[in-house]
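Example S7 (structure tokens).
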């Protein structure tokens, strides 16, 4: 199970279940990658996925590579040509602790914004309510 440094992918708890929850990345109903927890998503090993891509700093083109060997299978100028070649880039999921840092009080760092449609109101009369809940 691919994992980042410091994550023991084989550790089990007292009940015999994995100590680190598995993170499954699926396309449709097919699992294409399994990682050892959300921490491994931050910088997953290249071989965790069937393909990965990076922009070359010298010519600014994307190199799509096989995850298991690193061999270049496609070189493209951008995301549209990458999609046309059959490689759909996956947006990186947002993990608040990865963005805000390990010392952030994530539970209290969120604002809830609720936009309500008022019956009979025009588009310019929409009500927006801001609610800050400090924990």
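Recovered sequence:
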């Amino acid at each position: 199970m691919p994992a980042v440094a410091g994550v023991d992918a084989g550790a089990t708890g007292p009940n015999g279940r994995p100590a680190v929850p598995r993170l499954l990345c699926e396309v449709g109903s097919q699992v294409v990658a399994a990682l050892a927890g959300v921490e491994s998503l931050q910088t997953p090993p290249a071989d965790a996925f069937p393909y990965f891509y990076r922009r070359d700093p010298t010519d600014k083109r994307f190199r799509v590579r096989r995850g298991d060997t690193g061999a270049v299978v496609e070189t493209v100028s951008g995301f549209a040509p990458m999609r046309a070649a059959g490689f759909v880039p996956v947006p990186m999921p947002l993990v608040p602790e990865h963005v805000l840092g390990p010392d952030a009080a994530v539970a209290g760092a969120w604002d809830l914004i609720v936009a309500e449609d008022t019956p009979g109101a025009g588009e310019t009369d929409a009500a927006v309510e801001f609610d800050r809940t400090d924990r």
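Notes on this example. DSSP finds three helices and seven strands in the chain.
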